[in-house]
Amino acid sequence: MNILFIVNDAPYGTEKAYNAFRMAMALQKEHAENVQLSIFLMADAVTCALPNQVTPQGYYNIERMVKAVISKGASVKACGSCSDARGIREIPLIEGVEISTMSQLCQWTVEADKVLTF
After folding, report:
1. Count of C-beta atoms within a 10 Å radius of residue 20
2. CA distance 47 to 45
3. DSSP state, 117?
4. pTM exceeds 0.85
């Protein structure tokens, strides 16, 4: 089953990005043989793809979560125009995250069996 996550919120401030990645990690752990995950970062969620995030001990770290889902086969892409608007297109992203397009999101959407938004 192809599952598409569309994440819109910043990595910190609300827990939407955290919950999206937490669910993605749980799906990969519990249903690895049955699911293929795609994660599209939009709006402020593109900042989830920035490396070198430092969080207090015991606090969740989105960078580690992004790396974890990628290491288990998820595709993670960040909206190009959203990245441009936030001035991060030229900044190196977490390894494995690619700048992408609305066209790619549309393709993933029509290929998905389920689309989840956070």
Report:
1. 25
2. 5
3. E
4. yes
